[in-house]
Amino acid sequence: MIKKLLFATGLLLASLSATGSVMAESRIKDIASLQAGRDNQLIGYGLIVGLQGTGDGLRSSPFTEQSMRAMLQNLGISTQGGQSGSKNTAAVMVTANLPPFASPGSRLDVTVSSLGDSTSLRGGTLIMTSLTGADGQIYAVAQGSVVVSGFSAQGQAASVTEGVTTTGRVPNGAIIERELPSKFKDSVNLVLQLRNPDFSTAVRIADTVNNFASQRYGGPIAESRDSQEVIVQKPKMADLARLMAEIENLVVETDTPAKVVVNERTGTIVIGADVKVSRVAVSYGTLTVQVTETPQIVQPQPFSNGVTAVQPQTDISVMKAGSNVAILNGPDLRSLVAGLNSIGVKPDGIIAILQGIKSAGALQAELVIQ
């Protein structure tokens, strides 16, 4: 399967490698994000009610009972008396991401995750839960019906479970109550952060913005600070929101370092377009030893005093295949893929070959093993 995949990749990139390395063009908004426009994480602790007997056991999850008593007391209901045996309530952690420039009154999705021994959150309702940020301030309040994608069914002798039933979402379940203290218009400059840090790409972003600014504002305004950040100074007469709208649609040629990503668990191999291999000779051979036990029952002779015995019999076979020597010389992706295809080994063999080539210093790329 991997052989066909690599061969198809070689055909796909044949036209690219024939003319040398071709760089991709992308808009600035697709390769960089605004530092002032990042998300903020929110967290809260709440209760889900209305479960069909799949909630927390109050003995094994005492914090659920404490939360129930505190909630009922806040509602003016006395909770003095015996312990409740209901399993229709579950304690959950509620998480959400507060989007940038969010205004009070807008809604966002929240995720609920069980804290106790609840078996399913399906059919439950999250009651009012406050969501706080890292500064301890309440920024949103969540409440609503929980949507669970997984399900579980159980009988006396069998059970079926698909997906995760102890985690769910509340679509548009949180209402933003407080806006972030910082304002976008209060910034004196724009800080663009590259999603894939690279010095070449950062410099090209700064050059592209300066070429635009020279025609629009009469001078350069951008400077690449390092491989990840590009600083754009706000012109005196420019509007910051309009400036960002103009910059984010500029097209830039992106560049990435040569990498080979290998996942040994799934046998996935991803080779970048700029990966090159120096001329090396590779021999890959697999030695298979098969041991088969076929014990035989030996019966005694008639009218003898012998007993039935088991006579062991072991068959050992040794097979060795794939010992051909192939020469790899990959000045471009097409040649590298064709060389790997000529060896004709399985994905685990290709992974071993790439590791050996890297150890020999012939792989001109970073080898990332997951």
From TrEMBL:
Alphabetical list of InterPro entries matching this protein: Flag_FlgI
Top-level taxon of the source organism: Bacteria
Pfam families, per the entry: FlgI (PF02119)
GO biological process: bacterial-type flagellum-dependent cell motility
Chief subcellular location: other
A GO term for molecular function: structural molecule activity
Annotated HAMAP family: FlgI (MF_00416)
Function: Assembles around the rod to form the L-ring and probably protects the motor/basal body from shearing forces during rotation.
Protein name according to UniProt: Flagellar P-ring protein
Lineage: Bacteria, Pseudomonadati, Pseudomonadota, Alphaproteobacteria, Hyphomicrobiales
